[in-house]
Amino acid sequence: MIASLVVALGMAACGVAAGPSTTPTADPTKDKLAQVLARGTLVLSTDPGYAPQSFAVKGATRAAPTKCAPNQLTAPEISGFDAETGKLVAAELGVEPCFVTPGFDQIIAGNWGDRWDVAWGSGALTEKRMKTLYVTQPYYTTPANYFVLASSTYTTPTDLSGKQIGACAGCTHELYLRKTLVLPGVTLEYPVQDPQIVTFASEVPGLAAVAEGKIDAFLCSQPVGAAAIADGAPLRMLDEPAFNTEKTGYVDRGLTLAPGPFLDRINAAIRDLHANGKLKELSIQYFGVDFASAAGSFDLTSVGQTVP
Fold first, then answer.
1. HEC states along 104-147?
2. In Å, how far are 80, 121, 186, 257 from 146, measured between CA atoms?
3. If we measure between CA atoms, which residue out of 89, 141, 11 comes closest to residue 272?
4. Residue 215 DSSP symbol
5. Helix and strand counts by DSSP (H, E) for the chain
6. Is the peptide bond before 52 cis (omega within 30 degrees of 0)?
7. Which of 171, 180, 179, 183 is nearest to 130 (CA)?
């Protein structure tokens, strides 16, 4: 972990440096991309306690000089796969990345009030979320797996039928357990029958509940559970995934500014980062596995998103 933090600090410091200067060609009071370019910052949502996707960098010093507002975190203060993705996109736009910390429930609810511009928070591309949010080209793809106590006898998902299974409240994993999850173009299967669903505010307390023997299993994104095991939690992952999700960026559908050019630039940046292998490198650095490459070939037009 110390080594990863050192690397993260180095990457974070580099993240402050913006790419080539870009001048807005539209009216910043009417166009979202023009607003971002004129302001010189890309404001990203983050969770400082969601390692390895995003975490506060211990001992980091706030960037100076900075265009970030006093209530925003600067690039050296936050790192992780999601955070570094945001920094790379900001560099592609030629602006400085700044971070705010809303709750995930606030993010997926939409109507952000222009408090942040885009969210890369390991959020899944689902039909329900597309009602309140625009989605971007996916930046990585992950399986969702069941995590059980290492000493338990469970070996397959079917062994968990009728058992107490945890999931984060409102997440795709809870919706899956309730059989209400809809993923564009995906047919889901349900080998676990009649689970007793227990919800948690986030994955951290849910995985801890399994480790403490309070529930039988917890369903979450594979990298999250794997990180808990790497940190010493007495857990074991069942090999058979429940489903896979495309992790996407979110942009608020409640925008009063024209979103089209902004989404086009964001999507172009993500595609470039897939093409040059930088997202693959980040995935291997933070997860030890390439979860990114498969997302690069996802056809975003297949979800039928309309952008004014």
1. HHHHHHCCCCCCCCEEEEEEECCCCHHHCEEECCCCEEEEEEEE
2. 23, 21, 20, 41
3. 89
4. S
5. 10, 14
6. yes
7. 183
The crossing angle, in degrees rounded to 10, of helices 278-287 and 222-230 is 40
Condensed to tens digits (0 to 9), the pLDDT of residues 70-106 reads: 999 999 999 999 999 999 999 999 999 999 999 999 9
User: Does residue 248 sit in helix, strand or coil?
Assistant: strand
Q: pTM to 2 decimals?
A: 0.86
Q: Which of 99, 133, 130, 139 is nearest to 116 (CA)?
A: 99
Peptide bond into 65 cis (omega under 30): yes
Task: Give dist(CA 83, CA 119) in Å, integer.
Answer: 10
In terms of Cα–Cα distance, which of 87, 144, 91, 143 is closest to 120? 87
Token pair belonging to 30: 């009417």
Inter-residue contact 236 to 152 (CB < 8 Å): yes
- Rounded to an integer, what distance in angstroms lies between the CA atom of residue 196 and that of residue 66? 49
In sequence order, what are the residues at sequence separation of 6 or more whose Cβ sits closer than 8 angstroms to the Cβ of residue 245? 124, 125, 126, 141, 142, 144, 172, 183, 221
Q: Given the structure tokens 């166009």, which residue do they identify?
A: 31
Cα gap 217→159, rounded to integer Å? 11
Domains and CATH numbers, the chain: 2-140+246-303 (3.40.190.10), 142-244 (3.40.190.10)
| pLDDT tens-place string over residues 184-238 | 989 999 999 999 999 999 999 999 999 999 999 999 999 999 999 999 999 999 9
> How do the residues of the chain divide into helix, strand and coil, expressed in percent and rounded to 5?
35, 20, 40
* Residue written as token pair 């997202």: 279
